[in-house]
Task: structure prediction
Amino acid sequence: MTMLVVGSVAQDTIHNHLGTHPYIIGGAAVFTSLSASTYGPVQLVGIVGRDFPPEAISMLEARNVDLEGLEITDGKTFHWEGRYSDDLSSRETIRTDLNVFADFRPKIPERYRDTDYLMLANIDPDLQLDVLNQVREPKMVVADTMNFWIESKLDSLKALLERIDVLTINEEEARQLAEEHNVVTAARALTGMGPKTVIIKRGEYGALLFQGDAIFSAPALPLTDVRDPTGAGDTFAGGFLGYLASEGFGDDFETLKRAVIHGSALASFCVQGIGIERVKSLSREDITGRVNAFRRLVSFS
Amino acid sequence: MTMLVVGSVAQDTIHNHLGTHPYIIGGAAVFTSLSASTYGPVQLVGIVGRDFPPEAISMLEARNVDLEGLEITDGKTFHWEGRYSDDLSSRETIRTDLNVFADFRPKIPERYRDTDYLMLANIDPDLQLDVLNQVREPKMVVADTMNFWIESKLDSLKALLERIDVLTINEEEARQLAEEHNVVTAARALTGMGPKTVIIKRGEYGALLFQGDAIFSAPALPLTDVRDPTGAGDTFAGGFLGYLASEGFGDDFETLKRAVIHGSALASFCVQGIGIERVKSLSREDITGRVNAFRRLVSFS
Result:
């Protein structure tokens, strides 16, 4: 089964309780691809400038991420700089340099167009739609979005929702998009807009999976060594997609539940490292151990 | 097994999206007692004024709550008035009339002093200590507290912590008391202050149970018909205590996990009614059905 991930490839400058981490590799497509690549080969579509480090290219390729779809162009790579509060409970953006990302028009290589599992990471919904017009018959399309697009491109976002299978979205943004505070009512309103399955991401409180009347609640692993939450949501999406791809189609609720736990397991590793530090070196064994920790955390007799 | 609950008995005036509910029966000891009484007989120690409705007395007695310890004195019953935001995510206190509760000095009837399970609901820690000095050898002491006592009576609170088995506390207040943002580190700091077991209550995100290195995560049931969150934490404590009392001692982690789920089940009923409306009429069958709903919500194969 092939997986295709479309989204941002970035360099992040992160200030947190552990210091300043300048120009480390980041971006939703990178976190998602590295996470998904634990389960199988991944194709990435994104754009970077000529400053993007060759070591990062080699690292991604060594992790089974196909970079034929990574456009390298004149200019600088997308750069985000932010500062986390000491307890990591909030962050502020210091600057966003879109650079070459401002002109990103995803071009899906011919070889990628028959992909089975497609992750549309958080980008302009018009570009997400454009990707959908370039692929043939994916078995499953997962998309993420954010408040910026809800506020500025609602019509395009609604058109997108009609064409995807799974929406992953933060709790606050789910409320905003559904115009509904209650999280269950909000999730059901979102499934009414198109996606059969909705996953509400709640950060340190875990995630909720909705499909029809069924609900599954996944916890977050309570950790003492959280270093950097950057990319945790994208890493979650990669684990979710990767598990489903490794299992075959997997649209039944039991398989989706396990996929959410795998996503949560990957995300729990992500926050234990700075940037992609931890995600880039995970094995299937690491994941299995962590999935078992999730099982112990919630099971009762 | 006998259960003793000490705490506030009140009349609440609640303004919410459903209207104004004037002078309805409330108070931590009432929510906890009604919840615990689903499992067995409960003894209540509290204080009310002569205005306390005789129907409320009859209702409590019919629910197996022993009121020998309820002092009825000249003056008015403790009255709290508050307004919830339309989405129930926040509330403001409009007025607090302590009335006879200002002079509450818990007197434990002789007949209650050999109680097995003791719940010290959220009152002045000096009074909680005073209760401990009046009982003989309870098998388990559970206590709750709040930011007001952390800020005004920290020494007494710390003396209390050394003498209790289980602390139930809201997430924000756990952070405040432990002076530690990370919830795991905070919980471990709190167990270091005395109680072997700590339960962090997270409202609509559920609860975390800590004992030694073991952690259990209980979800909250995602509900579409939340009417009134008042008393949910106290109702949780009643279900927790009631289940343990019905099971015998129950200090092992597996039993504590089930007790947390029972507490969560009771709390999920509580929020579906205004005040005690739903809690006062629950059966063991209702609880069993809801515990199974919790199991379905978190289990994965």
